[in-house]
Structure formats: structure tokens, C-alpha cells
Amino acid sequence: MLGVTDFINPSELGESSVTEVIMEMTGGGADCSFECIGPLTADAFRCTKQGNGKTVILGVEKDGKQLGLSPNEFLYGKCVMGALFGGIKPKTDIPILAEKCMNKELELEKLVTHEVGLDDINTAFDLLLQGKSLRCIIWMDKLT
């Protein structure tokens, strides 16, 4: 397991909303939700627990739409925060992560879905845009 406990595809919910499904699954709301693409940020916020729910925004919509939440929704003790590049501090965190990778404490290879040579870089971008690739390694020395 790489940290994700559940995944919901909104297109498979029928008449139920994402918020309704998550509230039911968790018995009152998730402790923490992560929104990675933008359009479901309000749903991600609304599905967290009252009192201490946290929503982390990792992605934004292409057209820069504003987040549509009522100020009253924040009165229940929930919070929203952003995490550009995962919220890391490069100077201190990258050496720690590099050491964990070298010691095999982080299994990053499990996150790689495709590998291509430099001459197939457009294929890598196509896979990413189609949602078929999580992470793609582009090998600079593999040319045809």
C-alpha cells in the first residue's frame, strides 16, 4: 500500500454525490482528503470530518475557477491548505528522501507506470494527458 486507502470514481456513482458516498464510507467524514485535479475541491472539503477535517489541494483547474465554498462551512473546524510540489522544503527534504530511496525505505519504482526512450517523449506526454500514466521515466540514452 502506498498511502491511498480508498479511491472513488465520480462517473461510477449514479445518483449519489462524491460527498454522500465518502460520508457514508467513513461514518461521518474523512480525516483528510486530497484533491489532485481541481474540479472536485469543494467536494473534497465537504467530505471531511467536522471539527478537524483537513483538505489538501494538490491541483487546480485549467481555467482558474474560484473555489465555491461558503464562509459558514469553515466554522465547523475544517481547514484547507495547498501543497505545491508536495509541500517539501527542497534544501532539507530532498537529501532525506534521497537517503530513504537509497536505503530502499521508499519504493518509488512502484509508482512508475511507463518507461520510454527520448525519441518517444511525445508518447509519454500523450499517456499522461490521456490519464493512462502515473509516472513515466524518459531514458535519455535510449534513442532509435
Descriptive labels:
alpha/beta; two-stranded parallel sheet; 2 domains; 144 residues; Rossmann fold; three-stranded parallel sheet
Structural Rg: 19 Å
CATH architecture grouping of the largest domain: 3-Layer(aba) Sandwich
Distance between the termini: 36 Å
Order of helices and strands: HEHEEHEHE
Strand-residue fraction? 5-15%
Helix vs. strand class: alpha/beta
> Whole-number average pLDDT?
85
Number of strands: 5
Stretches where pLDDT is under 50 for at least 5 consecutive residues are none
Structure, briefly:
The chain is an alpha/beta fold and about 140 residues long. The chain is built from four helices and five strands; from the N terminus they run αβαββαβαβ. It has two domains: about 10-85, Rossmann fold (3-Layer(aba) Sandwich); about 90-140, no CATH class.
Show the helix and strand layout:
Elements: H1 18-26, E1 32-35, H2 41-46, E2 54-57, E3 79-82, H3 90-102, E4 114-117, H4 121-129, E5 136-139
Parallel strand pairs: 1-2, 2-3, 4-5
What does this structure look like?
The chain is an alpha/beta fold and 144 residues long. The chain folds into two domains: 10-87, NAD(P)-binding Rossmann-like Domain (Rossmann fold); 90-139, no CATH class. 26% of the residues lie in helices and 14% in strands. It contains four helices and five strands, in the order αβαββαβαβ. It has helices spanning 18-26, 41-46, 90-102, 121-129, and strands at 32-35, 54-57, 79-82, 114-117, 136-139. The strands form two sheets. It has a three-stranded parallel β-sheet. A two-stranded parallel ribbon has the order 4-5. Strand 1, helix 2 and strand 2 (54-57) form a beta-alpha-beta unit. The longest helix has 13 residues, at 90-102. The chain is globular. The model has no long low-confidence stretch (mean pLDDT 85).
